[in-house]
Amino acid sequence: MSQVKKEEIRAGTEEFRGARSKPLLECSRLASVYFKNYFREVEERAAQGEPVIWLQVDCPQEICHAMGLPVFYPMHYSALMAAKQMSPYYLNIQNQRGYFRDLCRYCGHALGCVWDHKSEIAPWGGPPKPAAVVVATFDDPIAKVYELFAREYNVPMFVIDRTMWSNFPSRFWEDPEIEPHRLEWEVEQYEGLIAFLETITGKTLTETKLRQVVDSSNQQFGYFIKAMNMVAGTVPCTITVADHMPNLICTNYFRGTEWALEHARRFYEEIKERVGKGLVACENEKIRLGWEGAAPWFSPGFLNAFEEKYGAVFVWLGYITGLENFVRLNYSDPLTALASRYLEYLAWVSHFPPTACSYYLHMAKKYKLNGFVFLVAESCKALTASMRFIQRELQAAGIATTEITGDIVDAREWDDTKARSQVASWIETLLT
Amino acid sequence: MIAFETMQKYYRERCLAAREWKRKGGRVVAYFGNEVPEELILAAELFPLRITGNPLSGGELADRYMEYYFDVQVRSMYNEILKGVYDFADMIIIPHSSDSVLRLYYWLWEEKRINEAMPFVRPYLFDKPHTVTRGAGLYMLNRVRALKQRLEQFTGLEISSESLLQAIALTNENRMLLRKVADLRTATPPRISGTEALQIIGASLFMQKEEHNKLLRQFLQEAEQLPANGDSKVRLFISGSTVDNLQFYELVEFCNAVIIAEDVDTGNRYFDGLIDKSLDPLEAIANRYWLLPSPQTVPMAIYSSYVLEKIKSVRPQGVIFNYLQWDDAPAWHYPDLKSELDKMGIPHLVFEFQEYLLAAPQRLKTRIEAFIESIGDR
Amino acid sequence: MYVVGIDMGSVAAKVMIMGDNDEVLSYVVADAKPDAEALAKRLMNEALEQAHLRSEDISYIVSTGYGRVNVPFAAENRTEIMCHALGVYHLFPSVRTVIDIGGQDSKCIRMDDKGRVQNFVMNDKCAAGTGRFTEVMGRALDISFDRWGEVVSSAPRRARISNVCTVFAESEVISKMTEKVPLNEILAGVCEAIVTRVIQMIQRMGAVEKDVAFTGGVANNKGVAQILAEKLGVDLFIPKIPQSTGALGACYLAKRFVARAAGIR
Predict the structure, then answer these.
(1) ipTM over cut 0.90
(2) Which positions ≥6 away from A232 have C-beta within 8 Å?
């Protein structure tokens, strides 16, 4: 095969490279800058011999933050790879190694980069070498993907075995009751994780610091909740999902850190100011939409593409469901607080139908949505299944829905023109 | 051979024995997967009936709410349940195994929420852990105890240690007899085909264990009379997704091959691993079901090693990997297994993303025949 | 000694008669028909006539291809995988990888230095990466097969065709034509799409081993051949009649059977 250059890798994806999303907040810009700077910092610390922990987003990162460990998230890096239009190249590497095309691509995607070992073309110079990897058994592929990371770098892996919900109260988000045996084992596993990290890194976790980080994370989410309550209640909307992405998604990666708390406060203040001044995202707002799941990372402008012509604004993003429930105030012990947070997070992000249906309807009413677009991403059952049930619930309540087929990171079969045309046609039916 | 024909009958008419049991006043627990401890169900004097799909049945009911990217075999099971094939089951147990199977539990729950009149009972989730740490073992024991309690509530009767030991004796005997059947497949030449073996093993999932044990003993007694199955047939091992019907095996064995073993859950893996009678029965049951490797086991090196060990033990001339559409978990193992087989010099063929119903077998046949030709050419 | 190789493909049937010195005495082709047996008989008669032979002169007949079991007068049948490999081996003994793109399927065969199949992959699930794809696109763009080479060479860049499905890819091509994307760029994009699908299939076998032969009807298409060679970074070995390698291999196989029966190694 001929030598591949970065330009050649990206060449076939010209038509939707240029379309950027349109965040309005200063916070969004700051969050994006912080992400990149944090990555550089982690690289620098790794170069100086500090142990870097690779972590999946549903693992208790608060423990790592409390220990002052530099953390790298393959899932976030995967999104970055897609945004840099590198997904076809890296996914082809995955396939060439014998991993079939229909397997996990969102989290599995980073494997292509890890195997390629070409820092000169990898986004931001490629991932930092880990000292260990930490994963939870969220779905079939993820622990396997992390095992392959661990194997490639010859480092140990810690696995949190995730237990599953068997009962759901009807308004789950108000009163989630976690079975004691599940909570108990989750906490025990966190104790094991702490011992593992202390041994690998030589650092110590103090209970004081852990409590501080958990308290900070509660405050952080508190600000986001207050901010998003304002966003929900404001018509026309003051921000679109373009601002959800950098701000809320950063909650996935910096829970309880000083920066994240300060950023959440800034976010809240900026929203408050915008609402106070009556600033809107789209003067022409006619239709308020929800987007289920992550937007296709390789086409970041997609979600803003319908504002100018149709006044169709995406005001809610299903990617960060259950935000209200990240706050944990009634626990004396920080590990139990974290365990309950992550066990509940599992239900949200998995969209298990008994709870997802009523929650989505609740959100649709709260944000005054006219419609929902569902991205059918076949390679990620865990994040995108139960759409049919949710759609049924929404339609019964008079909220229009539509589906488009695509992927969160795999651009190989994405026809951007066709997808936009599909959504536009649907929007036109809502306007008539 | 009457014994084989009887087992064949129960393999084909899968609810027959369970319905007979019900008619006599018994109760039936329908379940899926190798993860659910049958011994608990047997000790509660209930009939354990494995839920399976049906390639010849449609998918219209499943298609309403199950997205197209679910494991095609699970989709079929979902459809069968919605159609009412298991409407006579008094209890349904779904394990936390693959992503699709786990979601079967939630989908059935939601179907009932939408329409209470759906023709099945609300399922019970058996939350089996996937790792192999001490903590996972304790959690498994906790879940086995919980299932025991649930069954006791259901029947109103206590499940005694004695009844557990009796159930263990029954299932262990079943496993040992099936092991002897497995030996007939690896004999030179093989005495039974893979297609026949699937039916013999499969009958255990659909009939009373005592009855199945009796038939197995009878079958083994008559084994000497079995014709030798052809020295010239290429001996193959099958790896990958579940095989709950005969299509694929029939197709492969039509091409001058004989399937001497497999790692699939409805084949040899079903009866692998005896329960340790020297332990407390609940602990012994928990250990056996927890530690039996599966594509969900973490880390995946455990299941890969298990498969390779099985392959080495039977020394096939070739291996065919067969992965159903959207059955992700076993497919992740393929590159490692392929690489090891290459080192061992064992030829292999892979069918990825296969349909549940083999609608165009001719195309598969060409590939299988070409594979067998290439083995013969070596 | 005269032997016959019959390749009953899904799109075309071919019959070849070979003589003692491996010379091809006749070669006839016809479109596939529902009554495959009758077609095989007819073509057999035509081939015999062309070669000035009678049926009693034939020592052995081997059939191959999708419809190989529908030739009752063949002594043996073998898959097209084996026969293509053998056919190419005899034409180009240095070849270790055969890429065959036919009307309805595509395959890649790896063979050893004796023409024995070591590994193979096939795409027989969808039309993308097959001759059918090229037919549909050629019609949409109104560019005949024989001009694809020159048209693709003239394209300064290649349009991106993202759809895997032939039907949707056709719509995509038509959209691009409406958007006034130059035809040569679209065609180059089409060829690249075909080659990409084929290479994805090949990569399932691991690295491509040289030398590489390109056979099947699509090997006549210089546009596809150009881009395939470029992407693989090799010079391709293309038979004069690329669709004939199956029948050719069947003839060599027939000779082997004759030799075996005579106890000759």
Answers:
(1) yes
(2) A316, A366, A367, A368
